[in-house]
Structure formats: C-alpha cells, structure tokens
Amino acid sequence: MKRQLTMQVEHLRQMNQKVEESAKLRHDFRHHLRTLMTLAGEGRCEELENYIRGITEINEGNRLGRLTENIELDALVQYYSNLAQSAGIQFRARLLLPTVLNFPIVDLCGLLGNLMENAVEACQRQQIGDKTIFIAGRVQDGQLEFVVDNSFDGELKTREGNYISSKRNGFGLGISSILETVERYDGVINLYADEKGFHAEVSLPLGIEQRMPLPV
Hints:
Layout: H1 2-41, H2 45-61, H3 71-86, E1 90-96, H4 105-125, E2 132-140, E3 143-150, E4 158-159, E5 162-163, H5 173-184, E6 188-194, E7 197-205
Parallel strand pairs: 1-2
Antiparallel strand pairs: 2-3, 3-7, 4-5, 6-7
C-alpha cells in the first residue's frame, strides 16, 4: 500500500507538471503565431518550416499521454516506465484494458508491481546488450491476461524447478507474493526464460471471488 501511494503521488506530480507546461505553451502561442505570420509574410519558407517543427516537438513532449485508461494501473506502469528509462532501460507497454476492471485493483497492482520491479532489477544487473522491458495486457474470454518480458544477464538461480531470489538465499518475496495472488484467485502463471529474455505470463479470471483459506 505504501508503494502504491508513492506511485500515485509521483504520477499526480508528473501530470500536474505536464498541465503547467501545456498551460504555458498555450499562453505563449500568440507569440508563436506572430512569428509564423512574419516568416510567412517574408516568404522565408525554410525558417517557417523549422519553426513549425520546433513547436510540434514541444507540443508532443507535453502531451498528457496515458498507457492505459485504468487510472490505478496507469499510475503503476508510468512509475516503472520512468524508473526504467532513468536507468537506461527501454520500456514499452501495450495495455488494451477498459477503465473499470472487475478484479480487486490492490491485488492486481501488487502482482504487476512485483513483476515489473523484478524486471527492472534484472535489467539493472545486466552488463551487456540492450536492456528492455515490455508489458502487455488485455481482457479476453473473461480472462485478464498480462505478459511481462525483460532482458537479463542470462543467469537464473533455480531450486527444484523454482526461481529463487538473486538478492537473498531462498525464494524471493516478490515471486512468493505473485504466486500467492495468482493461486488465491484461481489464476494461471507461466514463468520461463529463453534466448530472448525472461517471460512472465499471467491469466486471471474476472468476476471471481478470492479463494479464502480453509479454517484450521
């Protein structure tokens, strides 16, 4: 919950910054129009084209882009996107998700947050090659499906067929939390690595109550 709040605050800060930058651009636009009219009136076509290109680049940089229409997930993915890019990691997202998901958002953000956190850490340990992370999500046939792919250094620690933490002895807390959430909602998860990187595929049924532990 603390991590989720931190990501929400950071997301709102970035959104407010973009709003302020866009307001400044609108305020200054009359000056741009005067410059454009002068260049056009003097027939300075090359300068006119370069000026228009510069305005376009500024405007593109200040767009309030969203990676998904779901506000909570957008804050989460934007957070890890910025974190990855600040570490020199190429981050791509393709999230075809509705605004409202019939799934507990806190548990979903915890699951995806752990997957993306692991992906970022794997890329940070990578010494050679391009560092990349890709996340995709969609709703299909009553299932909420996600894929998180990342490059890594090619070294994975396993024990009895299970992946273990690279930071401590034993199973990582992130992986344990991911598996527990998937099991609690009767979902399916597939973790594997190949020459292209590490892959996590998750499928969760929508509209299902979480499985409650049996009384002891």
